[in-house]
């Protein structure tokens, strides 16, 4: 009896001692398992071979450990950054590879320095371990959009995840992005080696030299800043690095003149479509919250030719800044941003909020980063005119070139990607991360196949690492069809007190040549008039119940004459859904003003664009939790139901 008592006391003591040690060392109480794995091979491996093994099992190879040829740092994207239990299955799959000796999941712990923010310190430390692979350019530490370690109060890891793409060996080689803007300082030491002179042109000056026109206030610095975000050179001691730092940029100077014309736009957007892969545009109709405008005739033809014939038939990629008109504008009134043939990009700031100048609309596909934090030094760091660098590039202007850079990485990973493949990849690999609406109006919602979207951010923040990984495996999507799903032509009135709801029941051209079973873009082509256009709000609801706000209130738009005439309001939110069934259009007059207003829906044509065949059926699933797996599952369930 006594002895057992003693024994249990002794045991208690041991436990106590251990507990005390835990207390002092802070170990391992807060220990977590990270998504990092140390992998040791049985033989020497090249970076490429190791990446091959990583990709095989859903990992990303971050590179060698301390220069060893046998030990590598792998990252698993589906394992959360921190969890309390080991991911045995992931280690097991790695170990099953004949070349792998062992794999150890890395634990995460804290080394707290007093007076510093704990989380940031932990992240900083991890980053220091990877430091050897990091660009040495002096502005790289300010490029939080490439690597966010919490600089200027940002949210660690809220970034484009480009290092994961670079670690897979992709830096944009043999891809050209054209910056359609006010010129590019192509003599800039951080740009000149990546400048593609053959693909460049000055449509404002009509000569082959798109050099920015000098003004005292550096007004024409926009294009140079955008170019650096895409393709500033790495490790040259100048400024920072571009997202795709081995890709090429072309300058297309077409702004900076008294008036824009349809032809300048068309020539620009159709310039050298086999030399230029990606066109980046950070301009559009005036963001005054009352303009409704888009590509004119020739420009429209240039875009259509670009997507159908450019890149030797794979299609050019047009990247568009969604607009800086703030909450009082709606980018669906901008025919460039709202086009199906452009990828419209919105911006978030370094803590995940939308920028205060962001517009919102249902045609936005995804988001990247720009300025706007409380800290004024948190702009976008990039190249500037006359060989200089800047930390204050801003606006959704700064966001579009980042997306272009990510696409350049994807095109190097898989040069056969079509313009539609790029959009599918964007939908499937963009992430919610920690993006949110600062004003809490627009929440994250799930569409009919389980894809999360947000009215402000589209499918979320772009993830370069995930995009190139999926791009490598990608099988081009099946042919696209355009189904006119229905038409309503009898005018319907709506007033402040009385909304109108129209319905189109459709089989989505089933049995016809243009049958669509899997949605890409949907357009509500509408004619309407009203006593005050800015007070009209429109929603389109899909058969699966996905509600897209296709027009928001624009308080400054006082038009009472033009209304909308066959305007193609577009939504990306129903991507992947089955279009068959009842589509609903709801029209409201805002109740925020005192004056009574009314309007008429004059006609509505529902256009559904997408594929007849399931788009991802030949793709392997690397990760059961990925969006790809979720959509594929939804499509398989749909097929079963059909048969
Ligand atoms: C680079 O791209 C061009 C055209 O886009 C293509 O013909 C060529 O084969 C590519 N070169 C390499 C090395 O991939
Ligand atoms: C616009 O282009 C189409 C061809 O795409 C042509 O038929 C039409 O006449 C043009 N309209 C104008 C106003 O130039
Ligand atoms: C709008 O269209 C309706 C139906 O054609 C017409 O009766 C009405 O006068 C128009 N209103 C305005 C403001 O143009
Ligand atoms: C709307 O309804 C309110 C009462 O609910 C009424 O006072 C107002 O006159 C109505 N406005 C219109 C435009 O019919
Ligand atoms: Ca540089
Ligand atoms: Ca706008």
Automatic annotation (TrEMBL):
Signal peptide extent: 1-26
GO biological process: larval behavior; peptide hormone processing
InterPro entries: Galactose-bd-like_sf, Kexin/furin, P_dom, Peptidase_S8/S53_dom, Peptidase_S8/S53_dom_sf, Peptidase_S8_Asp-AS, Peptidase_S8_His-AS, Peptidase_S8_Ser-AS
Coiled coil: none
GO CC, alphabetical: extracellular space; membrane; neuron projection
GO molecular function terms attached to this record: serine-type endopeptidase activity
Chain ranges of the P/Homo B domain: 476-614
Keywords attached to this entry: Cleavage on pair of basic residues, Disulfide bond, Glycoprotein, Hydrolase, Protease, Secreted, Serine protease, Signal, Zymogen
Gene3D superfamilies cross-referenced by the UniProt entry: Galactose-binding domain-like (2.60.120.260), Peptidase S8, pro-domain (3.30.70.850), Peptidase S8/S53 domain (3.40.50.200)
The protein's enzyme class: hydrolase
Domain of life: Eukaryota
Protein name (record): Neuroendocrine convertase 2
Gene name as annotated: LOC100906556
């Amino acid at each position: 009896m006594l002895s057992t008592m003693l024994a249990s006391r002794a045991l208690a003591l041991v436990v106590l001692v251990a507990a005390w040690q835990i207390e002092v060392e802070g170990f391992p109480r807060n220990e977590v398992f990270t998504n990092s794995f140390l992998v040791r091979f049985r033989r020497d491996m090249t970076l490429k071979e190791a990446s091959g093994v990583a990709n095989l099992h859903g990992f990303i190879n971050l590179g060698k450990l301390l220069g060893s040829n046998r030990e590598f740092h792998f990252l698993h994207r589906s394992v959360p950054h921190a969890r309390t239990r080991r991911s045995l299955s992931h280690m097991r799959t790695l170990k099953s590879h004949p070349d792998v000796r062992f794999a150890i999941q890395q634990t995460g712990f804290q080394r707290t320095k007093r007076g510093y923010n704990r989380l940031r310190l932990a992240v900083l430390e991890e980053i220091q371990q990877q430091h050897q692979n990091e660009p040495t350019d002096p502005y790289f530490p300010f490029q939080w959009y490439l690597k966010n370690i919490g600089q200027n109060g940002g949210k660690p890891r809220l970034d484009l995840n480009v290092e994961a793409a670079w670690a897979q060996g992709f830096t944009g080689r043999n891809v050209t992005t054209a910056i359609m803007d006010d010129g590019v300082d192509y003599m800039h030491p951080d740009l000149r080696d990546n400048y593609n002179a053959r693909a460049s042109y000055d449509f404002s000056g009509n000569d082959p030299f798109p050099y920015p026109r000098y003004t005292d206030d550096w007004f024409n610095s926009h294009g140079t800043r955008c170019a650096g975000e895409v393709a500033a050179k790495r490790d040259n001691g100048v400024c920072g690095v571009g997202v795709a730092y081995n890709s090429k940029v072309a300058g297309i100077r077409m702004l900076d003149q008294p008036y824009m014309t349809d032809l300048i736009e068309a020539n620009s957007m159709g310039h050298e479509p086999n030399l230029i892969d990606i066109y980046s545009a950070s301009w559009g109709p005036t963001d005054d919250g009352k303009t409704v405008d888009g590509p004119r005739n020739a420009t429209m033809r240039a875009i259509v030719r670009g997507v159908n014939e450019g890149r030797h038939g794979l299609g050019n990629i047009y990247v568009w800044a969604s607009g800086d008109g703030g909450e009082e504008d709606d980018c669906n009134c901008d025919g460039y941003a709202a086009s199906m043939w452009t990828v419209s990009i919105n911006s978030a700031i370094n803590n995940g909020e939308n920028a205060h100048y962001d517009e919102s609309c249902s045609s936005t596909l995804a988001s990247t980063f720009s300025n706007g934090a409380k800290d004024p030094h948190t702009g976008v760091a990039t190249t500037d005119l006359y060989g200089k660098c800047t930390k204050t590039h801003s606006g959704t202007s700064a966001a579009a070139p980042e997306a272009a850079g990510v696409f350049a990485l994807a095109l190097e990973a898989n040069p056969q990607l079509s313009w539609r493949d790029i959009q599918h990849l964007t939908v499937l690999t963009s992430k919610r991360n920690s993006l949110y609406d600062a004003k809490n109006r627009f929440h994250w919602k799930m569409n009919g196949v389980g894809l999360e979207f947000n009215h402000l951010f589209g499918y979320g923040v772009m993830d370069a690492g995930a995009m190139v990984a999926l791009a490598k495996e990608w099988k081009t999507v099946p042919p696209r069809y355009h189904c006119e799903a229905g038409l309503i032509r009898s005018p319907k009135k709506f007033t402040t007190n009385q909304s109108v709801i129209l319905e189109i029941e459709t089989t989505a051209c089933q049995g016809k040549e243009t049958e669509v079973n899997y949605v890409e873009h949907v357009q509500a082509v509408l004619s309407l008039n009203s006593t005050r256009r800015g007070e009209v709000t429109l929603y389109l609801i899909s058969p699966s119940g996905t509600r897209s706000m296709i027009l928001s209130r624009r308080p400054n738009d006082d038009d009472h004459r033009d209304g909308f005439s066959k305007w193609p309001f577009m939504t990306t939110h129903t991507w992947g859904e089955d279009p068959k069934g009842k589509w609903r259009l709801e029209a409201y007059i805002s109740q925020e003003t005192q004056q009574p207003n009314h309007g008429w829906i004059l006609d509505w044509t529902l256009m559904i664009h997408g594929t007849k065949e399931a788009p991802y059926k030949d793709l392997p699933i690397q990760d059961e939790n990925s969006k790809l797996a979720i959509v594929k599952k939804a499509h398989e369930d749909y097929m079963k139901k059909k048969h």
